[in-house]
Amino acid sequence: MSKREATAVGRNTISGRILMAFIERIERIRDQKKQLAEDEKLVFAESAATGFDNKTIRNVLRRRAAKPADVEEAESMLDLYLHAIGMATETPLFRSVGNMSVDLAARDEVIEAFKQLVPTEGEIIVKIGKQPVRLFRDENGVAQAEDIIEKPTAASKPASAVTSRPKRDVPDVDRLGARALGATAYRENQPITSNPFPWDDERRQEFDGGWREASGTDGMGPEDD
């Protein structure tokens, strides 16, 4: 259709019907966009109700939509600016060193770069990841690097707060024998608490009974005059 035919739009003409088809398609797309926007609001409301932070989610969405190279460049510039105004204590270089420490090849490259900074007399100690590295110059002036192996400190064993009592030997006697042992214990000036039988042993009561029978008291206090 030529421009001249397109401008000759009248009601119930072919051009008018084609134009209406375009308009209706655009309207349907806008309705769909409106519905999708409403659905997005509902999803954000659900995430907030679950306890997630929607600002952070939007930040994640922007990062996922951007190119990885653009994200990396933006983060590097942000680190640089924050350090320049004193809002970041760690320099971007040291942060990059820590990130590259997980890659052995990158770690070697970092060490080689730091070798250029080693003074003629002195040394540099850097921590790449969790491993400290000592950089120094040998007698020929060549920069060298070696890992610093930290010696583990001997952990002192805590003293036991409660001293365990020595286990008493349980006599191999019956109930009558246990009662006789209780009477013998009293005659040998042993307290009733010297009962050698455990609490859940029925012979314990027999021992206590023999001790009380021999002493004429309950063993819990001084005798009455």
Q: Roughly how many Å is the radius of gyration?
A: 44 Å
Q: Work out the number of β strands.
A: 3
Q: Looking across the biggest beta sheet, what order are the strands in? A: 1-2-3
Main β-sheet description: 3 strands, antiparallel
Low-pLDDT residue intervals, each spanning 5 or more residues: 159-164
Class computed from helices, strands and strand pairing = mainly alpha
Provide a count of the helices. Answer: 8
**CA-CA gap between termini:** 133 Å
What is the H-and-E element order?
Answer: HHHHHHEEEHH
Overall shape: it is flat
Strand content: 5-15%
Mean pLDDT, rounded to whole units? 80
> Which percent range fits the helix content?
40-55%
Can you walk me through this structure?
This protein is mostly helical. Among the domains are: 13-62; 175-215, no CATH class. The chain contains 8 helices and 3 strands. It has a 3-stranded antiparallel sheet with strand order 1-2-3. α7 runs parallel beside α8 (203-215). It starts with a helix and ends in a 10-residue tail after the last helix. Mean pLDDT is 80; it is low at 159-164.
Descriptive labels:
flat; 225 residues; mainly alpha; GapR-like_DNA-bd; 52% helix; DUF2312 domain-containing protein
Care to give the gist of this entry?
By secondary structure, this protein is mainly alpha-helical.
Secondary structure layout:
Elements: H1 3-7, H2 14-50, H3 54-65, H4 68-84, H5 92-100, H6 104-115, E1 123-128, E2 131-137, E3 143-147, H7 175-187, H8 203-215
Antiparallel strand pairs: 1-2, 2-3
